[in-house]
Amino acid sequence: MDFRLGEKELALKEEIRKFAEAELPADLMRNTVIDGEFRDFDFEISMSRKLAQKGWLAMSWPENYGGRGASFLEQTVYEMEIAYWGIPGAWMGISGIQWVGPCLMMFGTEEQKGRYLPLIASGEKDGVWCTGYSEPNAGSDFANIRTRAVRDGDDYIINGQKVWTSAAHHARWCWLAVRTNPNAAKKHHGISIFVVDMKSPGITVNPILNYYGRHHFNEMFFDNVRVPASNLVGEENKGWYYLMQSLAFERRSLAPTTYGSLKRILEDLAEYAAQTEYEGQPLSKNHLVRAKLADLAIDLEVLKVFAFQLAWRISQGQIPVYESSRNKIMSDEAMRRGAITGAEILGVYSQVDPDSEWAKLNGAIQGAYLGFPGQASAAGTAEVEKSIIAQFRLGLPKSY
Amino acid sequence: MDFSFTEEQDMLRISARDFLAKECPKSKVREMAKDERGYDPQVWHRMAELGWMGLVLPEEYGGMGASFMDLVILMEEMGRNILPGPFFSTVALCALPLLHYGSSDQKARFLPQIAKGEAIWAFALAESSGKYKASEVRLRAVLRGKDYTLEGHKLFVTDAHIADYVLVVGRTGDGEKPEDGITLFMVDARGPNVKLEAIPTVGGDRQFKVSFDGVTVPPDSILGEIGKGWDIADFILQRAAVLKCAEMSGACQAVLDMTSSYAKERIQFDRPIGSFQAIQHKLADMLIDVEAVQYLLYQAAWGICVGSPSPWQISAAKAKANEAYQRICIEAIGAHGAIGYTMDHDIGLYYRRVKAAQFAAGDTDLHWEVIAVGLGL
After folding, report:
1. Helical ranges in A60-127 per DSSP H
2. In chain B, what residues touch A326 (CB-CB under 8 Å)?
3. Of A9, A37, A250, A323, catalytic
4. How is domain B122-229 classified at the architecture level of CATH?
5. CB B171 within 8 A of CB B141
6. CB-hemisphere CA count at 13 Å for B158?
7. Phi first, then psi: what are they for B226, rounded to 5°?
8. Among positive and negative, which fits the CA dihedral A229, A235, A236, A242?
9. In the predicted structure, residue A383 carries a pLDDT above the cut 70
10. B309-324: pLDDT as tens digits
C-alpha cells in the first residue's frame, strides 16, 4: 500500500493552479453542473486550445497522437484539478477526450487513429465530438436501439433517431451506435459503431432544454445519412463490446471530476461559513454546520480513494469489472449530498438564480442542486449500476 | 500509488483467517459471551506463540518487528471472525504507547510480557460523560512525597477484570487548556484500592467502572512526561481509531459475505431472492460501504506506517466505519428476514457489537470535529 502522489503529480497540480489563475476570468460563473458547459462555446474552445498547447488536453495518449504518454495517475490528478478550478473546454465535446479517443486507440483502424486522434488532441473546433447512444425506446435498455445502418456499396445508409445527445449542437463528429443486424439471436449482437460527420446531409439536430432552460442536450434525426464503410469502428455487429468499454472509460472519469468540483464547493462553503455571521458569531462555529461539512468531507475522501484505486487498477493492466460502476454511484451520491448540504448552509439564498448578482459562491450551489439529478442519469442510472455490481462483483443472478 | 498488499501480507491474512476459523468458531464466540473471563486463555496463549501480541514490537522485546499495516490486516481478520478477548485493549491501547513513550526500563519490563501473552492491559480514559476529551478527565492524581495518589473513577474500561495493569489517564494539574496537566499512570490492576464494578453491555464484551480510592503510584510507573499526558492519549486514540476501524472493516466484509451467500440460497417465488433488484441493490450499497471503509482504513494506516499520521484521514476512516458498520448490519438483517433476528444466526453477533465499536476510540461527533478543524472551521 502506498497513497503517495509522485513529484510529477504534485508539480502538475501546481502548474494547473498557475494556469487557472492566469487564464480564467475572476467572475467565471461556476454553475456548470446545471449547464454541463456549453454556454460560451468560443471561450471554451479557446481554453481547449490552451490546454492542448500545454500538452494537457490528451495527456495520457501516446505522443504520435498528440498526447504525452502520461500515466493514469497523472490523468486522474489532472481531471481533479481541472474540475476544482472549473476550467472549461477539457473534454472536446463531452466525449472526444474521455472515450472516443481511447476507444479508437483500442478498436480503430490505423487510418481512423491517424485522422481523428490528432484532431481531438489539437483542441480545435473540428475535434469536438458528441455520442449518439440513447433513443426514445433505448435508455437503460440500451441494447434496444433501433437506428439502422444498411450496407450500400462502399457506404452505409443510416436512418433513425437519437435523444439526450449532449453537445450535438457543437460537435463536428458523432460516435454513433446503430443496429446493423436486426435478426441477431440476442439484440446485443447486432450493434455496430460508426464515426459520422455531423455535416453529412440528412442530419437534423434539435435542442432539448433542461428544466432550468439550459441547452445541454439534443435530439438528432438521421434521414438517409450516407456514411463511408471505412467509418465503421472495429467489426460489424461487435459494437456492444466497444460500447461497454466506452462506458467504462466514461464512468472512470466521473469520480475525479466530481471530486474536484465538490472539493472546491466544500472549501468555498467553509470560507462562506467563516465569513457569515449568525447569532453573534461566525456561522462556522455552529455545531450543525461543522457536522454537515465534516460529513461531506468524508464523502469526498471516499470518492478520492475510489478514484485513485480505479486509476491504479487500470495502470496495472487490469480491466476493472465493477469499480467504474461503484465510482459512478459514489460520484452521484456525493454530488447529491454536496448540493443538498450546500443549499442547507446557504439557507434562503440557495433559491437565488445562479446567474444573479445575489447568488453566493458564483452560483456553484444552485448549479449543483439543479444539475445533480440530470448528471445522475447520464452514463447509467444508479439502478443500472447497482445491478452491474450485484451481477459482476457479487455473483448474483441476472435480474433483467 | 499502490493499492496492493505484499505477498507476506496476503499470507499473514490467510494464516490469521485459518487460525481464527479453527480456534474461534462462532460457537466459541457465543460461549465466551457467557464466560466470566470473556476470553479463552488457551487461544490467547496460541496467539502469543504465533507472535500476534508482539507483531509490531521490536525483536529485542520478543516481537516480530512487523509494520502497522500488518497489524491492521491481522485486526481485520479478528473483526471478521469476532475474536473475543483483550487483544485490542492490550496491544492497540497499551503496547503501542508503551513502545513509543516508555522509558527503556519500562519497555524492558512490560513489553516482553505482552509479547509472550503473559500480561493483559486495559486503558482507562472515559469518565461519566463517556467522551474521549481532555475536558472530561477529572480523576485526580495528587503528589504525596515521591508517589502520586489516584482518586476518582473511570467508566467503560474494557477487560479490566482480567487485566494485570491499567493505563490510567489522570489529572495532575490544571492549565489554561483542558489538555494541560494530564498524566498517564501504569497501575497494578490487582493492587489495593482498585475496585471494579461490571457495566453489563449488549455486545458480550466485558466493561467496568474502575474506582481508584487512594491508589498509590510510584514515579517509575508514570508513562511519559508529567502534565503532558494528553499528547500520549491523542497518540493512543489515533492508532486505536485505525485499529478499531480495522476490526469493523473485517466485520463489515463478513456481514456482506454472509448476506450475499444467503441471497443466492434462499428461494422465494421459485427463485433465489438475490435475483430480485430490491435485494441486489441493498447488497450493492453494502459493497460500496465495505470498500469505502477499507480504502479509508488503508489510507489512514499508511500515513501511520510512513510516520506522518493524518488526523483528518484517521477521523474520516473511523467516522465512515461508524456509519457503515451500523448500516450494513441493519440492511443485512433486513435482507435475511426473521431468521436474521434470531439467537442462532450469526448476524446478530455482529449487530450487537456495533455500539461498542462506534464509541471505541471516538464516536462520530468527535471525529467530525477533527475534520471540521481540518477544514479551517
Report:
1. 72-85, 101-107, 110-122
2. 287-288, 291
3. A250
4. Beta Barrel (2.40)
5. yes
6. 23
7. -65, 135
8. negative
9. yes
10. 999 999 999 999 999 9
Mention every residue, 6+ apart, whose C-beta is less than 8 A from residue A110: none
Burial class (CB in 10 A: 0-12, 13-18, 19+), A275: exposed
How far is B167 from B158, CA to CA, in rounded Å? 12
ipTM: 0.96
Please indicate whether, in this complex, the C-beta atoms of A3 and B264 are within 8 angstroms of each other.
no
Task: Determine the Cα–Cα distance for residues A254 and A303; give it in Å rounded to an integer.
Answer: 10
Please report the residues numbered 47 through 86 in chain B whose beta carbons come closer than 8 angstroms to any beta carbon of chain A.
69
State the sign of the Cα–Cα–Cα–Cα dihedral B259, B265, B268, B274. Answer: positive
Q: Which of A271, A301, A387 sits opposite B277 (nearest CB)?
A: A387
Spatial contact of A99 and A246, defined as CB atoms under 8 Å apart: yes
The pLDDT of A380-387, averaged and rounded, is: 94
Tell me what the pLDDT averaged over chain B comes to. Answer: 97
| Residue whose C-alpha is closest to residue A142's, from A192, A188, A94 | A188
Measured between beta carbons, the chain A residues lying within 8 angstroms of B377 are 270, 273-274, 284-285, 289-290, 293
Cα–Cα distance for residue pair B75/B253, rounded to 1 Å: 13
Backbone angles phi, psi at A389, to 5 degrees: -60, -45
| Best of B1, B6, B368 to mutate (most A CBs within 10 Å, chain A) | B1
φ and ψ at A335, to 5 degrees?
-65, -40
User: What secondary structure letter does DSSP report for A236?
Assistant: T
Cα dihedral A254, A260, A261, A264 in deg (nearest 10): 170
pLDDT value of position A38: 66
How far apart are the CA of B309 and the nearest CA of chain A, in angstroms?
12
DSSP E strands in A114-154: the ranges are 129-132, 148-152
Q: Is B348 exposed, middle or buried (0-12, 13-18, 19+ CB in 10 A)?
A: middle
Locate cell 500480561: which residue? B119
Give domain B231-374's CATH architecture. Answer: Up-down Bundle (1.20)
Residues B249-286 pLDDT 10s: 999 999 999 999 999 999 999 999 999 999 999 999 99
pLDDT at A37 over 70: no
Average pLDDT score over chain A: 94
Cβ separation of B284 and A389 shorter than 8 Å?
yes
Contact check, Cβ <8 Å, B313/A294: no
Instruction: Judge: B375–A266 Cβ closer than 8 Å, yes or no.
Output: yes
Q: B170-198 burial, b for 16+ CB within 10 Å, e for fewer?
A: bbbeeeeeebebbbbbbbebeeeebebee
Rounded to whole angstroms, how far apart are CA atoms A305 and A285?
29
Q: Give me the long-range contacts of B18-25 (CB less than 8 A, separation at least 24).
A: B19/B46, B19/B47, B19/B50, B20/B77, B20/B78, B20/B80, B20/B81, B20/B83, B21/B81, B24/B81, B24/B82, B24/B83, B24/B84
Domain borders along chain B are 7-118, 122-229, 231-374
Taking the C-alpha atoms of A356, A362, A364 and A367 in order, what is their torsion angle to the nearest 10 degrees?
Answer: 30
Put simply, the answer to whether A1 touches B301 (Cβ < 8 Å) is yes
Q: In chain A, which residues have their Cβ closer than 8 Å to the Cβ of B263?
A: 396
Nearest to B275 among A3, A389, A396 (CB): A396
Homologous superfamily in CATH for domain B7-118: Acyl-CoA dehydrogenase/oxidase, N-terminal domain (1.10.540.10)
Tell me whether residue A63 is one of the annotated catalytic residues. no
